[in-house]
Amino acid sequence: MARFDANSTLKRLQNRYRLVVMNDDTYEEVVTFKLSRLSVYTLLCTIFVLLTGLTVALIVFTPLKLYIPGYGDVNNTKDLRELKIRTDSLEQQVRYKDQYLESIRNVLQGNTTVKLDTTTLKIPKPEKIND
């Protein structure tokens, strides 16, 4: 198993390389960059942190945050709950009225069927008090 040598790793990161951009037709050097692995790594990390920061800032400080599921204005959430409760109670009232009107319609048309109560109640007889 190879041993890890911190000095050789650091030297590899600091080795200088040259990146040359050339014109393909004339072989003229257009741009030359002197780079190391460490500088490329640092540049990529900086770009990543900046892009992440800009994205977070864009979401936090603009109305885009309202499009994130579960993230909304507290007042809007409270209002939506209140409206849902009110809608449910109104739907129940409409059902009760429909049942009432259907019962009245049946009575007026003579379509009523009387359901007799066939349960017997055992009511105790009141005791007489003799004076």
Automatic annotation (TrEMBL):
It comes from the Bacteria. Keywords: Membrane, Transmembrane, Transmembrane helix. The chain crosses the membrane at residues 38-61. This is Peptidase M23. It comes from Puia dinghuensis. The lineage of its organism: Bacteria, Pseudomonadati, Bacteroidota, Chitinophagia, Chitinophagales.
